[in-house]
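Before the break, one more example. Copy the sequence into your notebook; we will annotate it together after we see the structure.
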Amino acid sequence: MTTTTPQSGYTGICVSPGIGIGRAFVYRKGTPAITRRRVAGHQVAVEVERFRNTLHQAGDEIRRIRRMVASEQGEELAQIFDAQLAMLQDPGIKEKTEALVGDKLYSAERAYAQTLAELKASFGNIENAYLRERVHDIDDIENQVLMRLAGAEVQALHALRANTIVIAHDLLPSEMVRLERRQVKGVVLDIGGATSHAAIIARSLRLPTVTGVGDCSRQVSSGDLVVVDGNEGRVHLRPDHETERRYRSQLRRQLRRVRDLDARRDLPAVTRDGLEITLMANVDVPTEVQLALDYGARGVGMYRTEFLYLNYRLPSEEEQFKVYADIVESWAPHPVVIRTLDLGGDKLSHVLDTPPEANPFLGWRGIRICLDTPELFKTQLRALLRAGACGEVQILLPMISNLDELQRARALLEEAKYELRAEGRSFAEDCKLGIMVEVPSMALMADRFASEVDLLSLGTNDLTQYTLAVDRGTSKVAGLYEPYHPAVLRLAKMVCDSGRRAGTAVSICGEMAGDPLATALLIGLGLERLSLSPGLIPEVKEVIRAISAAQAREVAVACLEMRTGKEVRQHLEDVVGKYLPFWHHGHH
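Here is what the structure looks like once it is written out:
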């Protein structure tokens, strides 16, 4: 995974973009020692009491962190710590630990560590990356409780000097939020992926962060000069003069660019001939909502609900309603498009009984699971309809491949409305219903069902995968994954044309929507609603303001005539270069 170049450079995973330059602070935390001691029978009650007190103290500390985060970074980010509190207060974990103390006369430390080890083992078997990362929440809790039981101080990251790059094997969410934004210029972690809570926090703090760099934390000494390149996923230890100079000028450009884009944040996304394009945000987790508001999004074009389903049990209607209502209220009057559960059976194996599949991409997933487990689906639909009373909710169905599925989903939606009416609950009667167009059969049939829905949303990532028969997660064929392939563009054009004829809104929420290279092409195909990662909104807006819709249509016509994705890319590079002379691909 890790490659080291002569001048001590590391390559890892970019989890939060930007350039950071500073002196290394190597964070090595003590791990609590777990004594094997036995408890005397008459001491059991005292040991259990000690355990309960410790849980209580740890709970106070997490609540304190949560309050601090809520006031400094907002309520959304603070919710990460609700999961930890839930685990800390989980009666099952408590009972199991106390039973081990009582039955086996284990010390509280040993009993707690064993109980959590079992919980972690059950998480470890899960295919899903987001869920596997939740093990860090368990580690976080375990660390805080065991340190306290051992009577040790929980080491805090508070003695940081200015211009520091924090380097650690791993950072727990509670440690990540303690990083003083004014002092810390970047973060480097040996392990961890882009979906870990630490990564999400890094993005919301806008801290350049690279993870998955092997043994970097052992190769660097505190005080060494370090460059973190969160755009390319590189870390340079003790860079030579030339490298440092190059990155310092890049950093100056970055700061200038951020200031420029900030100054232009409130300018409208309008082409030179007056066509207004609606830029909305893709939001994966509630923590990104504030970011999207900061970048001037006009609503949420794609809110993914998977994170709700990745705990150790399915979310109740009330829990879902609370999450949806929060986000809908914070965006009113702008619409929030919420996609119903879109997971493969493999990701839900911990809560649904699903055998492993040889081909999960073509298997039991998304809407297929929802229609086969109507109670699960209806719980979500009821929560969504109720949240619709707090603002505008539009429901988006994933992975639809034939009309019959749409009709069955609509029937369940009507059932949910009927139930809510009977219960006298308030909900959105006229809630809009849309579908993701990510399976080629739907793109090819767009003219037949565009009039059946209120919204068509192009999921170009999956549409590309299914059209070209390429799983981009497989490195041997990843090079064949080409969203600019003329076949994909033709399907997108069919969908846009059908939507226009039927008077149905068409938007795009795939990664292509956030690529400034694609902006002119997408507008030319007829897309007027783009949903993208919040941080990419300013870049895309620049392109929109630099071209006219007429020019965009010429671009699209030319691209649709081409024979390979490579030709299309080359053409788009030339076009963007012409309208935005300072633009060069790869700077974002």
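The chain has three domains: 4-29+157-261, 41-149, 266-579. Residues 44-73 form the longest helix (30 residues). Try to locate both features in your own notes.
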